[in-house]
Design goal:
The chain has about 375 residues and is α+β, with helices and mostly antiparallel strands. The chain has 10 helices and 15 strands. It folds into 2 domains: about 240 residues, L-amino peptidase D-ALA esterase/amidase, CATH 3.60.70; about 120 residues, no CATH class. The protein is elongated, with a radius of gyration of 24 Å. The N and C termini lie far apart (about 50 Å).
């Protein structure tokens, strides 16, 4: 177990951010207001003396499991192991490494906002409204899936109780905006992710500050600084944890992952074509070169957005079919493919399914032609 205590940052309040025992710990040096999503002293509190973010991952390839009879007692145990009083501590947990924390600060005149973020969405990312996979009964809580975006938002200003709650809303919007800008997909539907299923947030305000703020919405400077710091920190944390970044997303297969498209699916289609003379290793090598072709990524992005707008009810099936076919024709012309399937469909689900089949068939035929990118 990691024993070394490392101070990694000093906040404008003078509070120090420490990393030890797979946790990030912030003991308060004065009175603070806290609003937390934690099961341990969650909600709005004015008696909290320290906060933490804990990596509950026992090791690579191992599932996160409870160490006691409940998640609540687990969090009490963690606080005790960190040398904190469970009665005056609140914390959040994750399977993301504390080594991959991102800390971003923004200042305007006498206001300073700092976001301290860890995160991952490759396994647990989802879109609000996705089908759930458990229902809490009698206080039972499921194990924590890998992933989770945990945010500690530090505001060096005094805030009213309502403003604290509004800061949580703005912070959440900033997290979702970061995911939208990365085009991160849900693992439970074909939608774009808005977070993970287990995200946690702690907002801290400085009760001793002479600056009293009453608005944390997007029109306020506080709201702007929350948005700037949280968006930036979420993006960096996701990159540090799993490599998720714009360069990684510049890939036509990754853009279609949430629709069920994979290298293996295209390989299976390729095997049914007459010109399937590549071995699978050769096929995968050439496909990985093709996936990042600039024009193909651009056309794929347009194709995906048509399907998204169909799901959102902003375009009708026939409109999507017509424009989708034009994109397929452009891919055909770009790679000299002689035959492509036609996009059809009358209903939303059937249209999307057909469009995916046509795209997979088209890429398989590009591989059959064998033209270098």
């Amino acid at each position: 177990m990691e024993r070394k205590i490392l101070k990694i940052f000093t906040l404008s309040t003078g509070d120090e951010v420490h990393r030890y025992q797979k946790s990030i710990v912030i003991p308060f040096q004065g009175e603070r207001k806290v609003i937390s999503t934690s099961v341990l002293n969650g909600g709005y509190q004015e008696s909290i003396k320290a906060i933490f973010n804990h990596d509950a991952n026992p090791g690579a390839g191992m599932a996160c499991v409870l160490r006691t009879d409940s998640y609540y007692n687990d969090m009490r145990l963690v606080s005790q192991e960190l040398g904190l009083d469970p009665e005056s501590t609140t914390g959040i947990s994750t399977a993301a490494s504390m080594e991959n924390v991102s800390i971003k600060t923004a200042t305007f005149e006498d206001l300073t906002v700092t976001a301290i973020v860890t995160g991952g969405v490759e396994v647990n990312g989802g879109r609000v409204g996705d089908p759930a996979f458990y229902h809490e009964q009698k206080g039972k809580v499921e194990k924590i899936p890998e992933g989770t975006i945990n945010i500690i938002l530090y505001i060096d200003a005094d805030l009213s109780e309502g403003t604290m709650a509004r800061a949580v809303v703005t912070c959440t919007e900033a997290k979702t905006a970061a995911l939208q800008e990365l085009m991160a997909g849900s693992n439970y539907s074909r939608g774009l992710a808005t977070g993970s299923g287990t995200d946690g947030t702690i907002v801290v305000a400085n009760s001793q500050s002479q600056l009293l703020l009453t608005n944390a919405g997007k029109h306020s400077k506080l709201g702007e600084l929350i948005g700037v710091t949280v968006k930036s920190a979420v993006k960096e944390a996701l990159f540090l944890q799993s490599g998720l970044c714009p360069k990684e997303q510049h890939n036509c297969i990754r853009r279609l992952k949430r629709f069920g498209v994979s290298q293996d699916l295209i390989w299976e289609k390729y095997k049914t074509l007459q010109g399937n003379n590549l071995s699978k290793p050769e096929f995968i090598h050439r496909l990985e070169e093709l996936e990042t072709d600039g024009q193909l990524v651009t056309l794929t992005s347009l194709y995906v957005h048509l399907m998204d707008q169909l799901d959102w009810g902003l375009l009708m099936p026939l409109e999507v079919v017509s424009e989708g076919q034009k994109i397929i024709e452009r891919i055909k012309d770009r790679f000299n493919v002689l035959i492509v399937s036609k996009v059809t469909g009358d209903f939303v689900d059937n249209t999307v399914e057909c469009m995916i089949d046509v795209f997979v068939d088209t890429i398989a035929r590009v591989m059959e032609v064998g033209q270098d990118v």
